[in-house]
Amino acid sequence: MVVTGASSGIGLAAAIALAGAGDDVVLLGRDPARLADAVSRVREAGGRTPASFRADFAVLDEVRAVGAALTADYERIDVLANNAGLLTSVRRPTADGHDPTMQINHLGGFLLAHLLLDRLRAAAGPDSPARIVTTSSLAEAWGTLDVDRPGRRQISRWLAYGASKQANILMTIEAARRWSGLGIVPTCFFPGLVRSGFGRRSPAFSAARLAPGLFRSSEQGADTLIWLATDPAALIPGGYFAQRAPFSATPRSTNAKRAERLWKASLTAIQTTKPI
Ligand SMILES: NC(=O)c1ccc[n+]([C@@H]2O[C@H](COP(=O)([O-])OP(=O)(O)OC[C@H]3O[C@@H](n4cnc5c(N)ncnc54)[C@H](OP(=O)(O)O)[C@@H]3O)[C@@H](O)[C@H]2O)c1
């Protein structure tokens, strides 16, 4: 099971719980020190040292490199937990020419899923499909996503974040349409408001964290991810969940035509610098 964003928060909590339950977890993170610390914590939980890989999703070549390393090391990958993400005020386009939030929260995971597609297919059996679980958010409701130009410059961090989380749901819907027949079940979920590393530099989000009862722990946030990654009852292609139950998103995030257009434009976006 490959978990992106495994060096902190929801991804780390999921990796610890899954390793503790005996799963073979592979950690992806960006910050080397946090990743090393995550490896120690997962080792303590699972009793063996998990493999770990570093990649900054703001650089698509680093995603390509980690995809190549994973495909070299693993013949089968049964789950891709597509969880890495952030809220950032950086608006300068990435070296790949995209809005940084959209690249890190959507295009990076979209590219990685394509790079690992053969390994996911190899893991899929008739009674046990492979899974892609993506961490979205109710922030999808205010996203300003141009599905034909997902990487276009955004004007604020929250609009950019909402757009990227809309893209997570639309990608899940279109992946289900394209890849269910290959034995792969894509789902996505909202973890709740979680007291993690997320949003620490946002004064509004940091203030909200102080409100009693509003935020959940990373372990609670990871619960639906773990359920979607492991439970036979959670195999609902294209589904969007919160707290292990179906959750509703705005029509902009669930429209099949928008999903198809976003997919095509995202393919173009990840191929602009170098083809995969
Ligand atoms: N916390 C919430 O309230 C909340 C609510 C809804 C959805 N979410 C979503 O939940 C997911 C996990 O966030 P979290 O709450 O667990 O926050 P977190 O504690 O900040 O963890 C984020 C993870 O994503 C990784 N990441 C960030 N930027 C990256 C990049 N450029 N390249 C590769 N990896 C990168 C981080 O790596 P580093 O350790 O190297 O920074 C970290 O492992 C995100 O997709 C977020 O949008 C969170």
UniProtKB/TrEMBL annotation:
The keyword Methyltransferase does not apply. Pfam families: adh_short (PF00106). Keywords: Oxidoreductase. It comes from the Bacteria. InterPro entries: NAD(P)-bd_dom_sf, SDR_fam. Transmembrane segments: none annotated. Signal peptide: none annotated. This is Short-chain dehydrogenase.
